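Batch 3, record 17
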Amino acid sequence: MGNERKQIKSLCRMCDDHCGINVYVDEQGQVVNIDGSNHYWNRGRLCVKGRAGVDFVNHPDRILKPLKKIDGKFVEIELEQALDEIAKKMSEITEKHGARANSIWKGEAVGFAQEEELARRFIHAIGSPNYFSNDSQCFVGRWIGYSLVAGSWMAQPDFENSRCIVLWGANPPSAHPNMTQYIMNAKEKGAKIIAIDSRLSNIARQADIFAQIRPGTDGALALGIIKILIEEKIYNQHFVEHYTTGFDKLKDYVQKFSKEFVCQETGISEDILNDIVKAIHFGKSQVVNYVGNGLEHHENGINNIRAVACIDALIASFDQKGGNFMPEGFGPSELTLYHEKPLTELEPIGADKFPVLYEYRKECHTMTAMDTIITEKPYALKSMIIIGANPVLTNPNTNKVIEALSKLELLVVRELFMTETAELADYILPAASYLERSELHYHGMHQVATLTNRIQTIEGVQDEYMFLHDLAHRLGAGEYFPWENEDRLNEWLVEPSGVTIETLKAHPEGYQYKPLQYKKWEAKEARGEKPFNTRTGKVELFSQYLEDMGYDGLPVYHSPDFIANPDSEYPYTMITGARKMIYYHSRNKNFKRFLTAVPRAELELHPYDAKNLGIADGDLVRVTSQIGSVEVHAVIKHEREIMPGIIQFTHGWKEANVNLITHDDKFDPIDGFPLMKAVKVKIEKI
Amino acid sequence: MKYITIDLDKCVSCSNCEYACAFAQTEDFARKDSNIRVNYYPETVTSITMTCMHCTDAWCMEVCPANAISKDEATGAVVIDQDQCAGCKMCIMVCPFGNIHFNPTKLVSQKCDLCGGDPNCVKFCISGALQFEEAEELFDSKRTKLDGKLNQLILEGKIKIKGGE
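Prediction for the assembled complex:
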């Protein structure tokens, strides 16, 4: 055994941590095992989800032939026929309604760096600005919040050199498994670990300070911390004076965030609040404030995130060793067409309602897309290509999503498996898995680029590039897809970077394209450049841009609705979206081994609430919001693990789909993120 | 010899080690099949993770009436020959740490065998709590960790050392 196996290095895509992997292939070319490679990023370690990537590529239920829905049933057709028919239908839609009636949606299931950019390029190439992804409800809120303050967001801060790591609504062991080893290494070297969460999460189990907080009140805590930092002069006065703007306004505003108010609002004790400040003080500028998705799904999400970023500003942790490092990019060729063909006059969907989301991320708004399809206002949206995404389970208000997607004249889904979204499609096309494509990926924390290896190819199963290439050529936009295949595209992509494909191939465990440099704002200032990539070039504690747009210029705090307007009919507050390590949102529920580990959706609740409601562990309960009901099994947590009155409902299960009861019309006014982590509900035992 | 070491200050009880071990035994993710066990106690927020310590004087090896337990010369692991095991469970009773369990399908005792020298639990440990370390180097790594803690206490002003800051 063993010696006839070939080892090939690549990157994992079972989640968005993108760990380095060794893929073991037998003599027949079959993938038989996967473990962690000594990549810069994961250093030989991997979570078991990565190993079970074997299931992903070899699964007997994989879709390997194009399917067309005829009289409600899917029948296999040839790829050429499918592409011809899809192109014909899209052309008809363009003729009748204009090109903007077509759209594309990039999912999280299959690709690496250029998958997203290719989708953006394609849709603009055919004349429509309507690019969608799950980013309009995940990740981008943090990106925008931080970018508004400091001009960028680094999803991978310098944990290992930090002396104080503050995790705001983030549980890396489940969501970004590989970050756990960095955080624990920092802890070993003496860093203070602070977990701010409504739930005692995996990472909170190893935290020095666990601040159990009421959902959506993180902004109050951050502003309370800022007030103390200013009062006790625990901030970097030089940095604040030279590199920030709006300090006096912020200082005035935080006066009302007294310890009494903050503790009452957040549920955190004064001792814990003082301990957090002490730990930040201990960290000096080597502090990582890492914001997770827990802060995004709130009506005041962006401002809460901005408030956290203002802490970084006061202690000058931006781009510091052990702080919130700001990586330099690889500098590839630009695949998107926003300069060449911006198409803003065609009214990208959601850009009028959420101009900040569009301006900062060129992201159309998926929740608005559903309304647009149904109402045809402000214009008709008739076709959508969805690549490796399952919005029927992952977008809020499932019933509306189903109604909208069913109303499309053309829905094309590229997938590996039949999903709840694919069932609504007119055509399902087999998608290449992450082991069947060669794409670039960048790990910002180490400034490392990696080219993934095409481990296997399956006849008739296209990678993203070939699919979009073939469709674009049929739609008269072939000039934008001139490369013969993905490999030629990659050669073009790396051209301006100065790094060759050969170099990347010689470094399958990552190639550091630039040595890390800290405090680049100093060097930039010395060169006469803007120190920070904001409008003023400074860190903006107050945003004139936001104020001019009619928003609060300061990171103003508003109490979440469940606190400001308690409703006796819906007395519980539901969090959803806390991940299970083994699953990736709606993915992997079709793998038998995964179901052995975590067999079903769970409703976590406090023992006090369970007792009041007469619920025993494992009971089936009904959870009802203003828009619907769903049944799920209860798991009674230890009294320390979740707050009374707060419940957590696992997402991504069709058998108990939490998004049947989440709202698509309650959102943060700046980025349009839906309220999913403080939904007012009632609970009944069935 | 290399040992699996466990740092309880790093374990987040994510169960990756249990799933990886179970997978190596049965290709499934049933935690009960795992030779390494993670017990989490929410009332004290404590994770206790344990696997076979491959004792130098292994009681399980001494007590086994079927001579099914031996030391693997290459890895130093105490291993059970499942073809020779009679299923009497003496080893399970004698192990002071409860690190041997019974496989109800094969009707034999089961325990960690260090995966032949490349333990899966360590490879799939995401926190770094599990390490596979040379016994001779354990001293060094433990000292480094302790020194780090002392250094932090000095930095925090909780202890003072003469001549220090």
